[in-house]
Amino acid sequence: MIETDYLIVGAGAAGLAFADALISECDADIIMVDRRHSPGGHWNDAYPFVRIHHASAVYGANSLTLGTESIDQSGPNAGFYDRSTAAEVCAYFQRVLEDVLLPSGQVSFYGMCDYVGDWVNEHVFTSRVTGTKTKVSVRRKIVDTTYLDVTVPATHTPSFTVDPDANFIPLGEMINLAERPDGYTIIGAGKTAMDACNWLIDNGEEPDRIRWIRPRDAWLMDRMTVQPRDLVTETVEGLSLGIEALTHTETVDELLLRVEACGQLQRFDPQVTPKMFRGAILSTAERESLKQIERVVRLGRVKSLEADRITLEEGEISTNRGQLHIDCTACGYHNRPIRPIFESNRIVIQSLVGVVQTYYAAMIGFIESTGRDDTEKNRLCPPVAQVDEPLDWVRFIHGVLNTSVLHSTEPDILDWQHRSRLNLTRGMENYKDEPRMQSALNRWGTNAEEASAKSQLLLGAAVSSD
């Protein structure tokens, strides 16, 4: 039997950000358990050429900088803050563990271990190496970072059947290609599929040799509208325009067109109405590259892949053994029902805006350290379900507006936000004299209350129609 104040299940990005924030503010003792041998969660299984969607400058743990915190001057990311690769992220999280958490004397890490307790009274983890079971006495709370979980192509089991004779691989295996196939069929509509297509094009493949099975088109966030530091004016301006758009619309469809017109959301084809919003972030160059792919299949999800044909929900297309089929259908974060973040004996890490970011995991860690009771902590941290459909853009904006109001009267939270390197809008007060920032803040202040009310009406109407 070992004892601790907090048992954190999962040493991925959220668990590390939470632990880092907690020990920075109090003397709590922490045990971290993870089924992998090293920290970093799903980044250990990510495809090699993936990069963080947004800027490295606002990802990870508060105590240690990730990336260069500089704007790239050349290459496909020119004009934006740098975005770390999977290998860089994994190395970073190892440093967070070895240089920050363990040296504090407050954190112990048990890798290659499965939590097998009941999440309530019995807390046990089992070593995958030795089979040894260890009981844990938790004085305060168990922290569940696995509720939303993450699936990536390397660990994903497709929902459709695959004939053994079909030429089929997960995305990560593309880097092991020994010879050029007859063509590529990308299966999936999300950011993973977008990365696969852009990787092929960036490596010289001809767009007309790429076939993209895209069951749903997506609304896309423009990378310029989610930039920190010296580009924070772009972020605040984009949010304020979205907030203003909410006040002038009566339906979600009308709203999204207005938001598209002001540049915060984009899509691939103006003739196709997107049915998905999962927070994918692309630059203009990335979008234009993907628009070169004209062989887009919109017949629903794949039901079966055979050596000579692909059966979909709404039809069938031919294929052959020379065609390489690439699985990009892993769902990323699971979209599970929201639940209170702070329970009597458990903390369930979730987002406050619908997009999981390490910033919110760190904020939850900070608020846990303040000594507030669970009722007050839950008031300050209302969870929002993971984004999936276009309506969820409204949930995202409502989450931004709601938390801004809730935290505006809490001096300690405001101080923490000003100190947090993970805060996307940190330092915006340094640009308060710039005309664009002044205009954006005025727009935000003028429209925030009405936009919040309108978002609640739209979300309520959607629930009523279900």
How would you describe what is shown here?
The protein is α/β, with parallel strands linked by helices and 466 residues long. The protein has 3 domains: 204 residues, FAD/NAD(P)-binding domain; 109 residues, FAD/NAD(P)-binding domain (3-Layer(bba) Sandwich); 120 residues, no CATH class. It has 11 helices and 21 strands. The strands form 5 sheets. Strands 1, 2, 3, 4, 5, 6 and 21 form a 7-stranded mixed beta sheet that branches. Strand 1, helix 1 and strand 2 form a beta-alpha-beta unit. The chain is globular.
The CATH class of the largest domain, by name, is: Alpha Beta
The percent of residues in helical segments reads 25-40%
- As a percent range, the share of strand residues is 15-25%
Mean pLDDT reading: 95
For the record, the CATH architecture of the largest domain stands as 3-Layer(bba) Sandwich
Q: Characterize the overall form.
A: globular
The count of DSSP E runs of length 2 or more, i.e. the number of strands, is: 21
Radius of gyration based on Cα positions:
23 Å
Low-confidence stretches: none
Count of helices?
11
State the secondary-structure class: alpha/beta
The CATH superfamily title of the largest domain: FAD/NAD(P)-binding domain
Give the termini separation: 49 Å
Domain count: the total is 3
For the biggest sheet, the summary is: 7 strands, mixed
What do we call the CATH topology of the largest domain? FAD/NAD(P)-binding domain
